[in-house]
Amino acid sequence: MKRLIFCLLLLSNLAHADDGYRLWLKYDLIKDVAKREEYARSCQFIAVSNQSPILKSAADELQMGLQGLLGKSIPIVASAGSRTGGVLLTVSKDASADPQQLTQEGYRITSRTTINIASKSDKGILYGVFALLRQVQMGQPIANLSLNSNPKIRYRLLNHWDNTNGTIERGYAGESLWKWYELPATVDPRYRDYARANASIGINGTVVNNVNASARFLTAEYLEKVAALANVFRAYGIRVYLSVYFPAPKTIGGLKTADPLDPEVRKWWADKTNEIYKLIPDFGGFLVKANSEGEPGPQDYGRTHADGANMLAEALTPYDGIVMWRAFVYKADPKADRFKAAHEEFTPLDGKFDKKVIIQVKNGPIDFQPREPFSPLFGNMPKTPLSMEFQITQEYTGFATHWVYEAPIFKECLESDTYIKGKVEASPEPTLGKFVVRGKDLPVDPSTVARVIDGSLHGYKMTAIAGVANTGSDRNWTGNPMAQANWYAYGRLAWDHTLSSEAIANEWIKMTLTSEPKAVKTIANLMLKSREIYVDYNTPIGLSRPWSGVHFAPEPWQEKSARPDWTAIYYHRADSIGLGFDRTATGSNALAQYRPEVQKQWNNPETCPLPYLLWFHHVPWTKKLSSGRTLWDELCTRFYTGADSVRWMQQQWAQVKPAIDPEIFADVTGRLATQHKEAIWWRDSWILYLQTYSKQPIPAPFPKPERTLEDVKRLSEIYKLR
Amino acid sequence: MKRLIFCLLLLSNLAHADDGYRLWLKYDLIKDVAKREEYARSCQFIAVSNQSPILKSAADELQMGLQGLLGKSIPIVASAGSRTGGVLLTVSKDASADPQQLTQEGYRITSRTTINIASKSDKGILYGVFALLRQVQMGQPIANLSLNSNPKIRYRLLNHWDNTNGTIERGYAGESLWKWYELPATVDPRYRDYARANASIGINGTVVNNVNASARFLTAEYLEKVAALANVFRAYGIRVYLSVYFPAPKTIGGLKTADPLDPEVRKWWADKTNEIYKLIPDFGGFLVKANSEGEPGPQDYGRTHADGANMLAEALTPYDGIVMWRAFVYKADPKADRFKAAHEEFTPLDGKFDKKVIIQVKNGPIDFQPREPFSPLFGNMPKTPLSMEFQITQEYTGFATHWVYEAPIFKECLESDTYIKGKVEASPEPTLGKFVVRGKDLPVDPSTVARVIDGSLHGYKMTAIAGVANTGSDRNWTGNPMAQANWYAYGRLAWDHTLSSEAIANEWIKMTLTSEPKAVKTIANLMLKSREIYVDYNTPIGLSRPWSGVHFAPEPWQEKSARPDWTAIYYHRADSIGLGFDRTATGSNALAQYRPEVQKQWNNPETCPLPYLLWFHHVPWTKKLSSGRTLWDELCTRFYTGADSVRWMQQQWAQVKPAIDPEIFADVTGRLATQHKEAIWWRDSWILYLQTYSKQPIPAPFPKPERTLEDVKRLSEIYKLR
Description:
The structure is a homodimer.
Chain A: H1 2-10, H2 33-42, E1 46-48, H3 53-70, E2 76-77, E3 87-91, E4 107-111, E5 115-119, H4 122-137, E6 146-149, E7 155-159, H5 190-200, E8 205-207, H6 220-233, E9 239-244, H7 248-251, H8 263-279, E10 285-288, H9 305-316, E11 322-326, H10 341-346, E12 357-362, E13 386-391, H11 407-414, H12 449-453, E14 464-468, H13 484-495, H14 501-512, H15 517-538, H16 569-572, E15 578-579, H17 596-603, H18 613-616, E16 619-620, H19 631-655, H20 662-694, H21 709-717
Parallel strand pairs in A: 1-2, 1-3, 3-5, 7-8, 7-14, 8-9, 9-10, 10-11, 11-12, 12-13, 13-14
Antiparallel strand pairs in A: 4-5, 4-6, 15-16
C-alpha cells in the first residue's frame, strides 16, 4: 500500500482512478490547508523508545499515514526529550493506574502539548495509532483528546474458508489470498497489507483455511507455509489459527483410528501441536467442524463433541492456544427440524468442555440467512463459553453483486434479548442509558446475545467472535467495493459491539469514499436501508433458503436434493392453505428452546413481528396480518416494493457521482444495474411459484410479471449447467 | 537521524517497487536525457485523420507511451499539415503498391522528416504503433526507419481454459480474468489492459472459455456477458471466440438429440449462430473438444469429426467465422499407443472438412510435455488446414513456480522438419540463409512444421495458431513474473515464427525488467537455458508424464488410475531390463506415422538423439549411450546436474539484483528457492524409484539422496489429500 501511495503521487497527473486496493487506509492529502496545518502542528514527530516489531509497525503506519494526509514527512525519534508537538507511543504497565482501567489490548489517547498514545501492550499502541489516524482521516479534532478504548471481546477473528487449490468456499472476490504453492519462499507483499487492514479495525487472529479442512495443513510441508504467513502477521498483532480435519491422525498420521479417547491418537495430536508451536510460537489454536454436513468427527467413534474438543484442548495445554468447536450440526432427518439440532446436541454437553474450549455458534439456528432469529444456544450453555460466528461473505445476500450493508444484521442478533436472566424493566426515566435496579432478583441489564458473547452475562473468561471473511485476490479485496464496509463493520463491532451501524457507516464512508457531507449522508442512508431492501425482494416476512445449489439462483420450487433439509420446500412449506414453518407447539415446537419471554414475542401469529412471522408460523394465504393486508398481498407488496427500491438505490447513487472516484462510481453503478435485474428475477420467481398455491391475483397497483414460471425456472437451470 | 534517513531510503525504494501489472508496456521515463530529446524531436505530434475505435486506440496508446517514455505530452492532431517531426498514422489501400507487399494486417514504418506508420487496415496501424513504441522502449534509433512487417499466420489466438465459476483449468495465476457474475453491467477496466497487451504482440483473437465447455455460454444470459467483453476487445482488433459444448442442442435447446446430421440440430446451431452474430457482429467462431477425454461429440451418434465440424461450419456460412476442431483425442485402450491416436482418427478424414474448418493440433502427440517430438499429424493432412496449439500455461513445466522460458519449446516444434516434401540439401555455401534449388524435384525449403502451420507448404488459405493462456487475476497476470515472457514470446512467434528465442528474450527483458547490458545478458542466458535445465531434473532423455493427478507432484510409481493411459507407468515402461517406450516396429510402431527421413533420425537407438531416446526406445539400464555413459549413469547425471543447475540459476539471478526492481527481484528469488527444493524432490523421486528396477548404484560423484523412496512417496501423497 505504501508503494501504491507513492505510485499514485508520481502518476497523479495521469489519473485519479481508484482501484480500491487501499481500502479505508487511503491517507490521501487533506484538501483543507488550514486543517492540515493544524494537524501538522500536533504531529511534528513520532517518539517511540522501543523497537519491537509491533511498535515498529505502529510507528511506520503513523509515519506513512501522516505523510499522506499532511503531505510532509514526519520523523520517528527514540525520545521526545523536552520537545512538544509530537506523538508519543508509550507502553506502560502503569497505564491502568487510574480510574478508567485499560485491559491488555486497550489504549488511551490524550493530548495537550503532546499527543500520548498509551497502552499496557505493543498491540494496544498499534490499535491506538489506527484510532488516531482515524480521527485525522475523518477530519475530527485531535487537540484535547481523551479517548479510552478496550476491546469487549478477547479473540476477534476472521475465518477464511480457503482451500489448498486456491478456491474459496463461498468466496466472491477472486481466489484465496494465500498462495500455497509459492509459500514459504515467495511471500506476497499483499499479506502485509492484509494484516494492516485487520489491525486497523482490531482483528487479532485469522483462521487461514476452510472449516471443511484439508489434512494437508497439518503436514510439515504446509506448516512451513503457514509459519511464513504467521511471520508477516505477527508484527501486526495477528495470530494464525488452523481449521483441522478430525481424522488427520489416520490420513496423515498412519494410525488406524482417530478416536479421541485412543491414547495413540491423543499422543499424535500432542506431538503435532508441539511441532506447530516450534514453528509458530504464537500459534492461536484450532477451529473444528466435526460431525457436520458429512465431515467426520468424534461421533464416528461413539464419542461426544466434548470428547473431541477436550482431546485437542489437552494437546494445547502447554501453550497459549484455544479450541474453537463449531456448533453448526444437523442431521438429515426429514421429520426433525434443523432449527433445533444444535441446541439438542450441545446443551446436554454444557459444563463438559475443557477450559480451553469455546463453542462457536452461528448467529441464527439455520445458516446465515438474510434474516434469522438468534440461535437458541445463546444463553443456554451458561457453563461453556460461546463465541459468535457471523458471515461477512455474502453467501446468501447476493454474492459480490448485491449491496447489503451487514452491520444491521450483526447488531440485530447482538442486541436480541435472550431473557436468560429474566425481563429487565427500564426505568421510566433512564439515566445515561442505564437501567434501574429494582431489587436483588432483577438483572441490571438485559440478557442480550452480546452479553453472552462478551462474557459479562455468565462470567466467561474466554470470549471470541469470528467473521467468515469476504476477502479474496480481487484487486479491491471484496469484489463489490461496497462490501469493504462489511469487513470494516465486522471488525469495529468485534472490538465494540455497542457502536451503532450508522456511526460505523459514517466512519467507513469518510475514510473510503468521500467526506462531502451530502454524499456521506446519502450513502449512509443507502447502506442502512440496503439490508431491508434485500430481505424484501429475497426472503420477506421470515422466508428462508430458496436457493439452488450455488446459493445464487432463486429456486423456491426445489424439492429434490441429496438431503431433505437441502431442498427449498423444507423451509418455506408452501401448500394450498398457506406458507411458513410451524415451529410452535402444534409444529416442531422449536420455540420451546427459547425462554418464555422470547416465546411470548413469537408464539402468537397475531402479534409475532412480521419479519419473523414465517419463521415460526404456517399462515393462511388470506389471513389478515398486522399490516392490514392479507399474507398474499403483503408478500406481493414486499417483493414489488423491494425490487423497486433497488431503482431508488440507483437514483440515490447517481446523485453522489461528483463526490466519488470515477472508477468506483462506475463499478457500483454496474453492480446496481445487475442487482435490479436480479431483484426482479427473485420477485418473479417467488411470486409465480407461490401463486400456484395461493391461487390469488397480484394485487393492484402491481403489474403481473412479464414472464412465466417456466421462464424463470429455465433461468435458474442455467446455473446448474456445468 | 540515521533512522529518518533509513526511512526515507526505504520509501524511495518503495516508490520504484513494481507489481508487474504493466507487463512489457511499462513506458517508464527514459533516463538518458540526450536520447529522450532525440526521440522527442521526432515525435512532436501524432497525426491521425480518422477516428475509428481501433485508430483511436492506436493514437491513445502512442500518446500515453510517448508521454511516459519522453516525459512530455504529445498532441494528437487530425492532420500534420506542413509540419514535420511527428508521427503519421496512415490507413491506405495503396500501402501495397510497392515491391514489398503488405497484407491486410501488416504495417510499414518509414521515417525521414516524419515517421509514417502505414497499413491497409486500422489494425495494421495499431500493430505498427506498438512496433514503434517497442523501438523506443528498447532504445533503438527511430530515424531512417524502414520496417515492413506482415503476420505469417492469420488467426493468432489465446485459448482460455476458464470456467463459469471463475476457476481456470491448469491456471496458476489466480482466478479467471472474466467476472461472469458481474458482467455485462460491470466491466472491469482490466479487460482493456488485457486487450492492449495482446494487441501489442499481435494477438487478434481470444477463446474466452474452457474447451471442456459449459453450455451456459450459449444461453442468452451469457452471450450478453461475452458481448460485453467483445465490446472492449474490438477497439484493439481482438475478436471473441467460444468453446462450445457439443450436446448444447439437448442441454439448453430441449432437443432429443445432438446428432450433427439431424435437421433440427442443424437448425438449432444455425439459429444460435444468428443470435450470436446479432450481439457480436465480429464474432470469431467456435472451438470444439469433442469425443475426447469424456467430452461428448459426433461419434456418440455414429458420426465423424468431419460431420460435427461441418455442421458448425454450415451454421457459420453467412458470417466471417471459423470452426477450430481439436485433434486431441485418444481412447482408453491399454493395448493401444496414445501417441498414435490423433493420426489414426484424423488422417482418414483429410479433405472431408468444410473450408471454414481448421483442425487444431497440439505440438506433440501426447500432451504438452516438457519435450515432445512433433505431432505426426503435421504434414499428413495436406487437404485440411491444421493449426498449432501450444500451451503457454505451465501445466507440465512447474506451474507458476519453475522458471521455464518456452520460446525454445515452441521453436523446437516449429523448426522440426516433417520431410513431407522430401529432403532439402542445403547449399554448401548458403547465401542469406536460403537453400539452393538443386532441381525441379527438390523443394526450396525444408518442410518444417512452421510451413505447415503458416500455410506455405500445402497452400492452406486459412492459417491459425493458439496458445493456452497463462493469464489470471493475479496482479502480475502470470503468477511468476518471468512467465510474462512466455505470453510475450507466444505472441511474437505467432506473428513471425522466424524470430529467434534469443531476440524475443532480449526484447522482453529490456521492455520489462532492465536495460542494463550485463543484466540483460545474464537474464537472457538464464532464460535460454531454463527449459533444458527443467527437462534435466524433470523428464530427461525422453521421459514423460510422471505426474500425479494435479500434474504437480512427481509420481513415477503411479500405476492405478481411472484409465490405463492416465498412469505414469504407461509412459515410462520401467522394468528390470530397462526404461522407455518402444515405438519402433518391434513395439507400437508409432514411428511409422512419420516420413522415412524422420524415422531414420529416431528409429535406431544407437543414433537417436538422446533428448528423444526414451520416447521411442526401451533401453537397457546398462546400455552405453552416445554420451559414453550407460543409460542409468546418464539418467543420474541429468537428474543431478539438472537440480544443481537451479543453484546456478539462483547465483546468476543474485547478480542482477542492482538492475532489477526490488519487489520483482524478491519474488523471483523466492520462486527459485522453491524451484531448487522441488528439483531435488523430482530428482530423488525418479532416481529412488528407477533404482528399484535398475539395481544400480548412484555413480560418483553424486551423493545418495538424503531420503528414502517412502519419504518422497509420502510427500506426493500430500497433494492427493482433499
